[in-house]
Design goal:
Helix content is about 65%, strand content about 10%. By secondary structure, the chain is mostly helical.
């Protein structure tokens, strides 16, 4: 169960951006702590997971799906590629790059899956099922609203 506002030491912030960024940093710290056990960061696992589910995505599709700008995405993909976890393929348009997991990337993803599931389970238990679903829905809604604003 989430601590009540009266027992919480965090004030409600008047800004959606500041509130979401604070929540994101705290949740990322939880996932990073669990994933550190297998040598991954939450940002890396997210990319591996996204490619595992989609099989093949262009860099533009990855950026759109994860709401990452091109520079940040390139900086995040580079170490994964250098470790041999992902591979770029040239698209029909030679400027376009398609990304896939390599066999080693699938293995690293599987190694990180239990740690990720542990973080998911812990956060879900603290929030409870109703708030968990609300969190997922609201974060998706906020992403779409920001894209359309």
């Amino acid at each position: 169960m989430v601590p009540s506002r009266s027992t919480s030491s965090l004030p409600t912030l008047p800004c959606a951006c500041a509130s979401l960024r604070r929540a994101t940093r705290a949740v990322t710290q939880l996932y990073d702590a669990r994933l550190r056990e297998v040598g991954l960061r939450a940002t890396q696992f997210t990319l591996l997971q996204t490619l595992q589910r989609a099989k093949r995505l262009t860099q533009g599709e990855l950026g759109t799906l994860l709401a990452l700008d091109s520079t940040t995405l390139s900086r995040t993909l580079a170490p994964l590629e250098s470790r041999g976890w992902i591979r770029a393929h040239v698209g029909e348009d030679r400027r376009e790059r398609h990304w896939t997991l390599t066999a080693r990337g699938r293995q690293v993803y599987q190694e990180g899956l239990a740690a990720w599931e542990g973080a998911q389970k812990r956060l879900r238990a603290i929030l409870g099922p109703r708030r968990w679903e609300q969190l997922l829905t609201l974060s998706t809604d906020a992403t779409l609203a920001a894209h359309h604003a």
